[in-house]
Structure formats: C-alpha cells, structure tokens
Design goal:
The protein is an alpha/beta fold. Helix content is 39%, strand content 13%. The chain has helices spanning 18-29, 40-60, 73-93, 110-122, 142-149, 170-179, 242-245, 253-268, 275-292, 319-328, 348-352, 357-361, 374-394, 420-429, 441-447, 465-472, 487-498; strands at residues 6-7, 66-70, 101-105, 128-132, 152-158, 185-189, 208-212, 223-227, 297-298, 309-313, 331-332, 364-367, 434-437, 451-452, 455-456, 458-459, 479-482, 505-507. Helix 3 packs parallel to helix 4 (110-122).
C-alpha cells in the first residue's frame, strides 16, 4: 500500500521550489559559462551571479555589507569564526590587549560550538570558551551575558533555534552590547530565520550572519555569509581568487542562481505564506496532536517560537515509536537536528532548557515550510489523529518481546542482502518464497501491509519472530524480510542464521525507506 508522503521536517531540509529549479536549469543550460571567463559566455554567467547577489542583498537588508556565496551555513560559520579569531591572534602577536572570552549560546547548532573550539585551538589562542545559558523558554540569559560582555571577544547566537523554533531576543542582546561598549564581534546563525523573520542586517550591530539555501527551497550545497562593514574578514579557502578573493573555487552558479530566485521571491512577497497563515497552520497541528495524544507536552513556549516549528513529547512513548508510527502513515518528522540524528543521547538544546529527562529523550520535532498548503496541513492533521487512535488501541503490547531475540553479532553474509533492484529476479527464481513484513502492528495499520507485484506479505511483528520462524524452519522455504529501515529485518535474519534454520533468508537493506517511488 502506497500513501502520499507528507513531509514535515522542513528544518532539516526543504524540496527545491519551482522558481529555484528554473533558475538552476537556466544556469546550467543557458548561462553555463565560468563567471571568471572574459568571453561572452563568461560575461553572461557573471551577470547572472551579480543578479543573484543583488537579490540576496535585498532579501537580508545587507546595506553596505558584503555577501559572499559559499557552500552553506557550516562553511559560513567557519569563515566568520576564523576571520574574527585570526584578527585576535594578530592583535595579540602585535602586543595589543585581547578579550579572553568566546561566548556561544548553549543551544547553538553544534557547527558553531565546534567551529569556535577548533579555530581557538588551531590559532593557539587558548581563550575561554563559555556556553551562555538559556532559560526554560530557550532564550539567552541576559544577566549572565551582561556580566560576561566586557571581556568577550566573540559572541555567537542564533536568530531562531533549529530544534525548538525559539526566537532569540536579538534586540535585547544588541542593547547589551551597546550598553557595555563590548569589543565583541557578533555572529548570528540566521539559517532558520530566512523567510520566517524580518531581516534588515545593515540596521543591526551584527558582524556576521550565516545562511543556508536548502532550508528555504534552494538546493543543497549553496549558502551565503553576510559581513558587516568594518568586520574583519579572511578567506577560509584560497586559490583562484573567486568571489573577489573572498572564497576561491569556481562558483556553484546553478545553486547561486536558485538561491537568488528564492531571495527574489522573498523580496516580492508573492510566493511564501504570510506569518498569519503559518500561525494558523501551527494551531491546526497543535490541536491535532492534542487530540491524537492527550497529555502531549510542548517543549518550548509557542509564543516565543517560529510558527513553523513544534517540539513535543508524549508521556509513555519514545520518539522512535512515535516516529515509526507517523512514518508508516506517511507523515515524516524527526527527533531533532538532522546533523545529530545518528548520535545517541537526548538533545543538548532541550537539556540546556532544563526540559525533564523523559521529555528530552522522547522529543519529536515537527517542522513545515512556508510553501506547505492548507490542504497539506489538513491531511497531516487527519493522519496524526488516525495515528493517535491506532496508538491508543495497540499501545506497546509487543515492545519488550522484541528484545528477546537470540541474534548472532557481526555483519550479515553478503548473500543475505537483497536490494530492491534485485527483488524481482530473486522472486522469479524462488516462486515459493515467503514475504514477511516485520513492522509493528501500529505501523502496518497506519501504512498498510507490504505488497509486491501482487504478492501479499505475511505480517510477523518482530516480537513474534522467534516462534514463527521456528515453525517455518521445517518447511525450508526461502524467506524475504522487510521492515521500515532494514534494522529489524537484519536482526531477524541474524536470528534465523544463528538458530540454524533451513532455507534461504534474505532481507532488504534500507527497508521501505528505500523502496522505489514507482515499482
């Protein structure tokens, strides 16, 4: 059974919008020259690059500041931190006084904290790196910041948090910088702000602002860095002198053109939904979650958050259980930052906010985009409510039994892996093979039982796998195992082999997540 995907993980990435795709294709097909070339094709490409930069400058209110195109926010952050700290190193080497503290918000993206630590060590500054606390509302502790600012060389804060959507009080921070006459350079991660918050950077005290295209309907691999007039700048990547010697390497013209098209749309105001519309979408989703999962807790105050982001926890349910259920229903959410998805432990953002351990460990992030329609949100609300009914009826009856499988360690033999593209050939050679869907009952109920080319799978939840395969062992028929991600099917295959059962066993790596869109 196929269900239309409803993508609600826009803070991780967004699809490329039509305007961005058109601009990128034009850059590849028409203005394909190298912007550094002096011939006509190069001039055409340079004109497109200049147009994109002008669009970006307008969208963020760059004023007399510079806008440098690069690969994304991580490179932008590293470039800003390197530039600020290299100036400090030069000042210290010249015998000039240098502030001793580098302040990073406790809820910043890890790219910021790691960048500060990295360049502090590489440049042998050995300054004190301090994490600025936040309150239960996720906003910075301004009392502590005021105490630190007179000896702060670099301050790093977000405009809006990627996990919770909490909007920083940048105006209050700017006021403190002025009141204390702080020497600090100020870096603001604006990745989640673009298209969601008004930006007029030239009218602020901000020295550096980092942006990433793929968070707002441009492709991956393109971003930009705003640098205020007078802020120190040193190229992180040197070579051919592109970007006016600010970032060498042939420009990613298709990506830049796409980002320029998005920035044009922002300036015109005719593409993305208004703040009021986004707030209505959020209110509908909040009500659907409360209807589906009574007792759901929202981990950040909605009045201080972007309207496109919800971070919530459900008592008695792990994030994995809820994500699996929603994913089976075609509603795609996450457990937090995509960059930290493979790392164990609860969110450092929620820990810094003092969220109770159970809620931090089971948190779910739902984030939608400014191009999502009311119809999409309505469908998502319907499916969330359906999932709530399924959850209430089936609530975790099978969970612990699945932990009792006897499984051999180590990797599976290569012949056990059966990629999707080889499935048809295997089934033609093994017409008596049994297809087995190992997902939990709530996932099957939400998304439907696995069917392939008219063949319906047998549903054997992982909790029931051991006794089922013991009964099948005597029959010695080939078995093809499937789950959502390939993890459970691999576990079940190991159990099969360790138990010495007869017949061939195969599992589909990546599971339904890698199923071809059209098969």
């Amino acid at each position: 059974m196929h269900r239309t995907s409803l993508y609600l993980d826009a803070n991780a990435t967004t699809p490329t919008c039509a305007a961005a795709r058109t601009a990128a294709l034009q850059a590849m097909e028409v203005s394909f020259g190298n912007p550094s070339s002096a011939h006509s094709e190069g001039i055409r490409a340079r004109h497109l690059l200049d147009q994109a930069r002008a669009s970006a400058r307008n969208a963020i209110g760059a004023g007399q500041g510079r806008v440098v195109f690069l690969s994304g926010a991580t490179e932008a952050i590293h470039t800003a931190v390197f530039s600020a700290l290299l100036q400090l190193r030069r000042q210290r080497d010249a015998g000039l006084p240098v502030a001793h503290r580098l302040v990073v918000g406790a809820t910043e993206h890890k790219a910021v904290l790691q960048s500060v630590r990295h360049w502090n060590a590489v440049l042998e500054l050995h300054l004190q790196v301090c994490e600025l606390p936040v309150g239960a509302d996720g906003r910075h502790d301004l009392v502590t910041l005021r105490h630190w600012l007179d000896d702060t060389a670099l301050l790093c804060t977000m405009a809006a948090n990627n996990e919770t959507g909490v909007i920083s009080d940048l105006a209050a921070i700017e006021a403190l910088l002025a009141q204390t006459a702080s020497p600090a350079r100020w870096l603001v991660d604006c990745v989640q702000a673009l298209g969601k918050l008004p930006l007029n950077l030239a009218a602020t005290r901000i020295d550096y602002a980092a942006f990433s295209g793929h968070k707002l309907y441009a492709p991956k691999g393109v971003g930009m860095l705003y640098v205020a007039p007078g802020a120190p700048y040193s190229a992180l990547i040197v070579g051919g002198g592109q970007e006016s010697d600010q970032r060498s390497g042939t420009e990613n013209l298709p990506g830049i053109a796409a980002l320029g098209a998005v920035c044009d749309a922002l300036t015109r105001g005719d593409l993305f939904a208004s703040h009021a519309v986004l707030e209505r979408h959020r209110a509908d989703l909040v009500q659907a979650l409360r209807d589906a999962f009574p007792g759901a807790v929202f981990n950040a105050p909605l009045e201080h958050c972007l309207p496109t982001t919800l971070n919530f926890s459900i008592p008695g349910a792990s994030s994995k259980e809820v994500m699996n259920l929603l994913d089976a229903a075609g509603v795609h959410v996450s457990a937090g930052s995509a960059c930290s998805a493979a790392k164990p432990g609860s969110s450092h953002v929620l820990q810094a906010m003092g969220v109770p351990a159970w809620a931090a460990e089971s948190a779910i992030r739902l984030s939608f985009g400014a191009l999502d329609t009311a119809q999409t949100i309505a469908k998502a609300c319907d499916r969330i409510r359906q999932c709530g009914q399924i959850w209430a009826a089936a609530h975790k009856e099978h969970a612990q039994a699945a932990m009792n499988l006897v499984a051999a360690g180590g990797p599976l033999p290569e012949e056990v892996d059966l990629p999707w593209e080889q499935l048809n050939a295997f089934l033609q050679g093994q017409p008596d093979a049994v297809l087995v869907d190992l997902r939990d009952p709530v996932e099957v109920q939400a998304g439907g039982l696995w069917e392939h080319d008219g063949r319906r799978a047998v549903h054997v939840p992982l909790a029931q796998w051991a006794p089922w395969c013991a009964q099948q062992a005597a029959v010695a028929r080939p078995v093809v195992l499937l789950c959502r991600t390939g993890n459970r099917s691999a576990q079940a295959a190991r159990h099969w082999l360790a138990a010495g059962h007869g017949g061939a066993v195969r599992h589909i790596p990546g599971g339904l997540a890698l199923r071809p869109r059209f098969d």
